[in-house]
Amino acid sequence: MIDLYFAPTPNGWKAAIMLEETGLAYRPILMQLGKGDQFSPDFLKISPNAKMPAIVDHAPEAAWGDDPVTVFESGAILLYLADKTGQFAPHKGDLRGRKELMEWLFWQVGNQGPMGGQLSHFRNYAPEDERTYGFKRYLGEYDRNLGVLENRLEKRDYLLGDYSIADMLAFPWAFIAKPLGASLAAFPRVADWRSRIKERPAVQRAIDLHKSEQNKGRHRADNNTVLFNQSAASLKPQGKTGD
Question: For bias kind Polar residues, which ranges apply (predicted)?
């Protein structure tokens, strides 16, 4: 059994998609981010960055020993699960395939994801009078990353040729292009790739997980200082373990 610490966001969907695709048994633990669940002492032991998703594998491979394995950061989670199951990633002996996998994992977590996250903030959550510059800036970066995907998908259906964890990482931030104020009209290959992945039953199950708990503008920078405008003090555990 794997515990999945989750909220219904693009980053949360990444891990849920992989777990659904592999068929691994897992228990979703809903994180109430607006209430500060991510700052609980117990969760900080699993995810020191106070971000979800994170997992606890209670039945790791024998090489890991007897203790449960904790993994935080979406890219690390998907790579761990790919190695655990032998699915959706080139095997370790395929050096070129593994090199390309790493390139696209690092591209997503260092470029597409952060730019999409900032665009989402200025589109949906920033104070109204502070949105314009940030929205324009990050829409440009978001579109630039769509261009990277568009070029990569020339003459291939998926980022590595076959469907892989690279696609699972990149898909969620392309899936929500419209709510971000962006358009895929100029990126037909990305639009086709998005549609193919969206039709996968495992992807649909992951996106529907705790769907009613999506933020959808309820928690904003002007009404929730727990979720936004965090400081270093947020990472200092408060109270007794388990509170």
Answer: 223-233
Angle ∠(191,12,53) on CA atoms, nearest 5: 145
The two tokens of residue 72 are 């935080």
Q: Are 236 and 36 in contact (CB under 8 A)?
A: no
pTM of the model: 0.91
DSSP 6: E
Q: What is the pLDDT of residue 240?
A: 42
Which tens digits make up the pLDDT trace of 156-182? 999 999 999 999 999 999 999 999 999
Q: How far is CA 112 from CA 10, 109, 138, in A?
A: 11, 7, 10
Cβ contacts of 140 within 8 Å, gap of 6 or more: none
Are residues 102 and 50 part of one domain? no
**Shared domain check, 165 and 73:** no
Q: Dihedral of CA 216/218/221/227: which sign? A: negative
- Average pLDDT of every residue of the chain: 92
For the chain, the domain total comes to 2
Distances (CA, A) of 234 to 191, 193, 219: 39, 39, 17
Is pLDDT of 243 > 50? no
